[in-house]
Amino acid sequence: MTDDTGRSLRKDAARNRERLLAAARELFAQRGLDVTLNDIAHHAGVGVGTAYRRFANKEEVIDALFEEGLRQVAAVADEALADTDAWNGLVSYLERSMELQFGDRGLNEIMNNPALGDERVSDARTRIAPLIEKLVARAKEQGLVRADLDQTDIVFAQVGLSAIMDRSRAVEPDLYRRYLTLFLDGIRADRPEVTPLPTPALTAEQTHTAMTAGRRR
């Protein structure tokens, strides 16, 4: 095998792997984690044999996407920590991690599914929690957030915002930003005035639509 042929094969393998991961994200978002590796291969437009050469089973696909998600969130946190303004860093982390973790419905399904076991939760905690802790600590040191704010408050805020995003996606995709703004105003210590909310509240009818979406009729 020539070097050119070897490089071409490696490129093809990498391309197929990315196609499979992209297809998995879409299927997980549409149908949950019950899809098979065969389903993923067909959706990606590659042969089943090709899929099994890249991944031994669906769990390896899930692991790859979970690891990719953790790397992306960690990179966002590192960039936020590089901002000398601790408040800007904290806000940037929340906004961008929400888009990453919960804007991608496939990734959301992977990172938040309760059936995926403690190992992934522990991995996320080990890698991401210390970065969030640093973001919160810096904001406290600069007197920008309330003194009793804890890094776990950020985690639970993200969980709540995720639920809002999931429920209201079809009605008003940006509704979660309203509640993110309310949360940020609630934790800021030096707020000169209330921040204008980026989107209006839903009507009672819209709220009912959002809350009953996906339920059996």
Please compute the radius of gyration using only Cα atoms: 20 Å
Q: What is the CATH C level class of the largest domain, in words? A: Mainly Alpha
Helical fraction: over 70%
Q: Supply the CATH architecture of the largest domain.
A: Orthogonal Bundle
Whole-number tally of structural domains: 2
| Share in β-strands | under 5%
CATH fold annotation of the largest domain: Tetracycline Repressor, domain 2
Q: Which blocks of ≥5 consecutive residues have pLDDT under 50?
A: none
SSE layout and pairing:
Elements lengths: L2 H29 L5 H8 L3 H7 L3 H25 L3 H18 L1 H8 L5 H24 L9 H18 L6 H13 L16 H9 L5
Helix pairs in contact: 1-2, 1-4, 1-6, 2-3, 4-5, 4-7, 5-6, 5-7, 5-8, 8-9
How would you explain this protein's 3D organization?
With 217 residues, the chain is an all-alpha fold. It has 2 domains: 1-56, Arc Repressor Mutant, subunit A, CATH 1.10.10.60; 58-212, Tetracycline Repressor, domain 2. 73% of the residues lie in helices and 0% in strands. It has 10 helices and no strands. The chain has helices at 3-31, 37-44, 48-54, 58-82, 86-103, 105-112, 118-141, 151-168, 175-187, 204-212. Helix 5 crosses helix 6 (105-112). The chain is globular, with a radius of gyration of 20 Å. The relative contact order is 0.09.
Task: Summarize the entry for a quick read.
This protein is mainly α and 217 residues long. The chain is built from 10 helices and no strands.
Please supply descriptive tags for the structure shown above.
217 residues; mainly alpha; Arc Repressor Mutant, subunit A; 10 helices; 73% helix; globular
